[in-house]
Amino acid sequence: MNTQICDSGHCFGAQLAATPRGARQARQLAVEKIAEWGLPTEGPALIVAELAANAVSHGRVPGRDFRFVLTLADGVLRIEVADTRGDRIPRIRDAEGSAEGGRGLVLVEALADRWGVRRGPVPCKVVWAEVFLATGSRGSVLRRAQTHKDPKNRGKEPTHPAKPGPRRSVG
After folding, report:
1. Which of 54, 91, 95, 140 has the highest count of CB atoms within 10 angstroms of its CB?
2. Rounded Cα distance, 135 and 45, in Å
3. Spatial distance between the Cα atoms of 86 and 126, rounded to a whole number of angstroms
4. Crossing angle (nearest 10°) for helices 42-58 and 138-148
């Protein structure tokens, strides 16, 4: 499968092979585009990495690809990852203490302001996450954390707003 990329202004997407290499490519492409938009990359890169890894691990159908899309509009970065296993809806689960997996959606929930699952078109599903870039959101916490890494800000403690409760939806 050849990588297919769509890039138009504040919308970027790619169709990639449903392999570990494809998941790594999704993260790399997302980091490049998000940086080009002038946004901090760390949190969104982790979200893309987790959703792409889930698509490859749990949503893979042999011979089918997965797709990811980044959209920047109205102060919101939206990340979508689609795979061809609409019959497998992801959910947060309690991972065993020594388990190697099972924590990806916990990270997504911690880093995103909202996330959810949209079914269809058959046989697909889209898992999405949104990072609000306005002050007081988890996205702004990511920006402050990035700013705090700057040497001129060392020694200054960032203020963190209370995180709003989880907002998930399936529909």
Report:
1. 54
2. 20
3. 8
4. 120
Average pLDDT of adjacent 10-residue blocks, the chain of 171 residues? 76 94 96 95 95 87 87 96 87 69 84 93 92 69 45 37 43 50
**What tokens does 147 get?**
């700013």
Q: In what order do the strands lie in the sheet with 4-8?
A: 4-8, 11-17, 65-73, 76-83, 125-132, 114-119, 168-170
End-to-end CA distance of the chain: 30
pLDDT tens for 119-168 read 988 888 999 999 998 755 555 545 444 444 444 443 333 333 333 344 55
- Domains of the chain plus CATH, in order, are 4-88+102-159 (3.30.565.10)
Give the HSE-up count for residue 94: Cα atoms under 13 Å, Cβ half-sphere.
2
89: left (phi over 0), alpha (psi -120 to 50) or beta: beta
